[in-house]
Design goal:
Elements (H helix, E strand, L loop, with lengths): L10 H14 L4 H8 L3 H12 L19 H21 L6 H16 L6 H4 L9 H13 L2 E5 L6 E5 L14 E3 L5 E3 L11
Antiparallel strand pairs: 1-2, 3-4
Helix pairs in contact: 1-2, 1-3, 2-3, 4-5, 4-7
């Protein structure tokens, strides 16, 4: 398991070290403040010191249907949220800690970067990382609230996430319930094009 090494044993030094790790992974200040319990001014100063620029303004990424827009999205969310779930079970803690979030995200990045056969979507992303850390935070919130849950596929036995608010026929396995079009793009079986009928 990956660990975050700290340079200070003080409470503030501990929080700032975690905040620095999150910023380097691409997290935005609101997420870092929530996980590390530091003030907004401290978060902004630390962000500027690391990135040499002001943080991006505007809303954090929020798309409750992100996992169903692509089977590859679902795979990436399944890897990350599976890690969040397993780490929570191991530590017997329901509340999300900064350490657990960082560990899960670093492991996710390592797993997807070592995929020997990336899809076209993954090949176009740096190190095949499709789940940005800020979206990972949003996904974690959906998972914690029960909007997303982990299920096991009856065909391949793989564990994957489904969105509870969509009908069961559309809660598909990102491994089994897909097909590839002529361009090689992976598509859900529920959106498979029907052959045109002859006049």
């Amino acid at each position: 398991m990956m660990q975050v090494y700290l340079n200070s044993t003080s409470s503030m030094g501990y929080e700032l070290s975690l905040a620095e790790t999150l910023f380097k992974l691409g997290a935005r200040p609101p997420i870092v403040r929530s996980l590390c319990h530091i003030g907004p001014k401290t978060a902004i100063r630390l962000y500027k010191a690391i990135h040499q620029r002001s943080p991006k303004q505007g809303m954090l990424p929020y798309d409750p249907y992100w996992i169903v827009r692509s089977s590859v999205h679902d795979l990436h969310a399944s890897i990350f949220l599976g890690l969040i779930h397993d780490l929570s079970q191991q530590q017997c803690q329901s509340d999300l800690s900064a350490e657990r979030f960082i560990t899960a995200y670093q492991l996710y990045c390592k797993i997807v970067a070592n995929n020997p056969r990336p899809s076209k979507l993954e090949a176009g992303a740096p190190q095949a990382i499709l789940l940005d850390i800020n979206r990972a935070w949003q996904q974690t919130g959906q998972f914690k609230s029960g909007d997303i849950r982990l299920v096991g596929c009856e065909k391949c036995q793989a564990r994957h996430v489904v969105l509870n608010k969509i009908p069961k026929p559309f809660q598909q396995c990102p491994i089994c319930d897909v097909w590839a079009d002529k361009t090689g793009r992976r598509r859900w079986t529920t959106v498979k094009l029907k052959p045109k009928q002859k006049p």
